[in-house]
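CORE FACILITY INTAKE
Project code: CF-77B
Contact: R.S. (postdoc)
Sample description: multi-component assembly, two entities in total
Requested service: structural model of the whole complex
Turnaround: standard
Below are the sequence entries exactly as provided by the requester. Do not edit them.
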Amino acid sequence: KAGVTQTPRYLIKTRGQQVTLSCSPISGHRSVSWYQQTPGQGLQFLFEYFSETQRNKGNFPGRFSGRQFSNSRSEMNVSTLELGDSALYLCASSQDRGPGNTIYFGEGSWLTVV
Amino acid sequence: DAKTTQPNSMESNEEEPVHLPCNHSTISGTDYIHWYRQLPSQGPEYVIHGLTSNVNNRMASLAIAEDRKSSTLILHRATLRDAAVYYCIGTSGTYKYIFGTGTRLKVLA
């Protein structure tokens, strides 16, 4: 079974630009969540989607947004990029949302903002 | 979700067992304990999870205290490939995992 696939793996953007990151969950998984990892803040939850609806959101500004498609694939978008947005963005998927379910992470997308 | 506390770093010799502790004193009755590890430049990898009783899988064992306020991840024979940051997380669902700083495990050859 293929794992969580994230594209692109690496990208460099300029301040003020926007970026879209893509995530394909494990086949059959309906929940997708996104995390940001930086050396200073560690792993932080961004948002979670289930059945094309955002169910939970972390403490990030509105420049960070996402969506989920009917095939469970997900994208996240960051607009008006700032230097501090440079990070590893991780997508994770799980079959369902309830207790006992486990999320599985992709390899991440490395974003550098210059 | 439960807040967890782990030592910042630990060392182990290769081929010896490693016991990685985690305190989760605020855990609720429905919170599962999940363990992940993260190798450099990779996403976190699922290791094991449990609710009340001890759990074993091909990667590790999880020992959960009777009062569920702490748990221990046991790697039976550490290898160099086990060098990673290990995170324990208490959660009642798959959303909003709260990662702490984890334990950086160093394995000595």
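Facility notes:
- Chain B has no helices and nine strands.
- Chain B has a mean pLDDT of 91.
Invoice: internal transfer
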